[in-house]
Amino acid sequence: MESYFEEMFGEIVGEGAQATVYAKGDVAVKLYKEGYPKENVFSEAYIMANLERVNFPSPKIYEVLLTKGRYALRMERVKGKVMSELGNPEKFEEILDILVDLQCRLQKYDQAAWAPELKQRFRDDLERNTKLSPGLKKKLRDILHTLPEGNALCHCDFHSGNVFFDGKNYTIIDLLQISRGAPEADAACSYMSYRLVHEGIAEAYLDRYCRKSGLSRESIHKWLTVYAGTMLGQVPEHFTPIIEQFLPEAE
């Protein structure tokens, strides 16, 4: 079957938990795993189309496909290399500075009335999470209620593995979680992405983000508490002890 897709879409250039990316010439196809929710595919296509209208640095979307029972997105091929080189001591600080600067600039996009509301998405994620005890779920809902709405364009998975650079331009990928909300919430998502890999990288990221944005660690940690609640039981089990560090005691 894979040879069929390679013949149709080109060589495999990327592979994740939910999709395989093929490319031929200037076109890429993101082919989702069998059974991947149809609504998520169309949601990502809708997001990409709207981002294109505001000149957000993301790939252009061409069409949604259904082939051999699997959904796919045909899009512009991303140029350059992914910036996930934080393990290189020589580039560690330089790359973090670039990423934080880029994230803060992207959060200033103000033409995102079409984007899902981030606070509501977190609220829905908490309600659906069966791994949370009733007491903990209530406490997290109460914390979320006190947090600001916000109008920043939030990627919600912004880290070095989702940014490409071709020597001139940056391109952002994995756009399904894009929402409209408080920039502190977006920073909390990025912090957790780094924290699941390396605590030192996460802390270095947060130091830089707070200096660049002018936002406080305290305000980001409030969002981090809620975000940890949405993640509990939704990621591989070996990450659970890390996530639990950010959860409050249930009343």
Task: Walk me through what this model shows.
The protein has 251 residues and is of the alpha+beta class. The protein has helices at residues 2-9, 38-53, 92-106, 118-128, 134-146, 183-195, 199-213, 217-231, 240-244; strands spanning 11-15, 19-24, 27-32, 61-67, 70-76, 81-82, 152-154, 163-165, 170-172, 179-181. The strands form 3 sheets. It has a 5-stranded antiparallel sheet with strand order 1-2-3-5-4. A 3-stranded antiparallel sheet has the order 6-8-9, with no helix packed on it. A hairpin with a 2-residue loop joins strand 2 and strand 3. The longest helix has 16 residues, at 38-53. The radius of gyration is 18 Å and the shape is globular. It starts with a helix and ends in a 7-residue tail after the last helix.
Please summarize what this structure is.
The chain is α+β, with helices and mostly antiparallel strands and 251 residues long. The protein contains nine helices and ten strands. The strands form three sheets. The protein has a five-stranded antiparallel sheet with strand order 1-2-3-5-4. Strands 6-8-9 form a three-stranded antiparallel sheet, with no helix packed on it. Strands 7-10 form a two-stranded antiparallel sheet.
Number of helices: 9
Helix percentage: 40-55%
List how many beta strands DSSP finds: 10
Q: Which descriptor suits the 3D outline?
A: globular
Question: Could you say which structural class the secondary elements and strand pairing correspond to?
Answer: alpha+beta
Regions with pLDDT < 50 over 5+ consecutive residues? none
Strand fraction:
15-25%
Distance between the termini: 52 Å
Q: Give the spatial strand order of the biggest sheet.
A: 1-2-3-5-4
Mean pLDDT: 93
What's the helix-strand series? HEEEHEEEHHHEEEEHHHH
Question: Major beta sheet, specifics?
Answer: 5 strands, antiparallel
CA radius of gyration is 18 Å
